[in-house]
Amino acid sequence: MLENLESLQFASEIPEEDRFWLYLQGRSRGLMIEACAHATFFCKVFYNLRELLQKNQNSSSPSTKSGDVDMDDNRNLKVGIIGGGRLGKQLARTLLQLVPIPAASLRISTRRPEVLGEQCKLGVQCFYHNSDLVGWANVIFLCCLPSQLPHICIEIQTSLEKACIVFSFVAAIPIPRLKLLLNHTNILRPQYHCVEDFEKIWGANKEITAALQDPVILRATCPYSPDGGIILNIKWLEGLIYAALNMCTESNVDCRQALQLLNQLFLSVHFKDCMKHEESCPEFQLPHVISKSYVKNLLHRRPFPWFDLTAVQLRETPFSQYHSTNTVLQDHLTYLYYDSFGIAPKKEEELVDLLDSPSQ
């Protein structure tokens, strides 16, 4: 209603000499959209991986009943959000609508649960008990203030299971410090870099969930895209790969099966030309994720070792070397990202699903 009424706009009362700083408003919105997009992609990937692991277990144990309540509970990805402020609320709304995560599988812990009326009406449990939330969830999103984080870490570190993934949006706390505070290695933290020439493409008047259905905005959130003036450190995507391997290890899947699941999960969406040249498609192999010396000593019927995700995001790994020079692999991962949101690549290439894409 106020869109065309200039005198009622936020910027109308700002002195001319201070209007230079208005770009920070757009940058803040861009960072919010990027964070929600990458959290959504992460949750979709891990929801699909849990389904693949469940199918794998069912095929190895055909006597398991498909309607078993415990099995259904294990298949559902349980997501916890610590912090009910602006980011926490937007993230909850986005995950419910776009993953979609059932309301029963999403819980929020915040000091003021009474302000989360909208989320409570949707069936999301909102309370203030961080350790209980961590003990229940498979994934924890940290959406609190930096000043609150040390106290929260003290509360939750003894309740954190080894396999629980902590996904931190607290930008002021670096990964080594977070690892120390939590005494935990299964941590993902996206790092964003903002360029000087900021682009105004983030849809200032759209809801976050609506913006994440706009192809132009979604393409700008792609991990490989510099559009919009906000760039994601690609080491986050590398951490995602190794987090998936950790989940396979937690499920006692041997390394060969884990690689098959990794290929099915991340490389299922192909170029149109892949039908003609399937041999050119990338495929994860053991030397792509572990060192060659370790490959020689690895028993192929054993699971992968447990990977320290904080080290993965801070150092060079075998996957770093494989990924950095393999543009075909980068293209496939880009197309997977687009496909998970239901949009086409920029050039409108046809996506061909050769391996029964788990993203739908």
TrEMBL record:
Residues in Pyrroline-5-carboxylate reductase catalytic N-terminal domain copies: 78-167
Gene: NOXRED1
Coiled-coil spans in chain: none
SUPFAM superfamilies assigned: NAD(P)-binding Rossmann-fold domains
InterPro entries referenced in this protein's UniProt entry, alphabetically: NAD(P)-bd_dom_sf, P5C_Rdtase_cat_N
Domain of life: Eukaryota
Function: Probable oxidoreductase.
Keywords of this entry: Oxidoreductase
Keyword Cell division tagged: no
UniProt protein name: NADP-dependent oxidoreductase domain-containing protein 1
GO biological processes: L-proline biosynthetic process
Family recorded in the similarity comment: Belongs to the pyrroline-5-carboxylate reductase family.
Molecular-function GO terms, alphabetical: pyrroline-5-carboxylate reductase activity
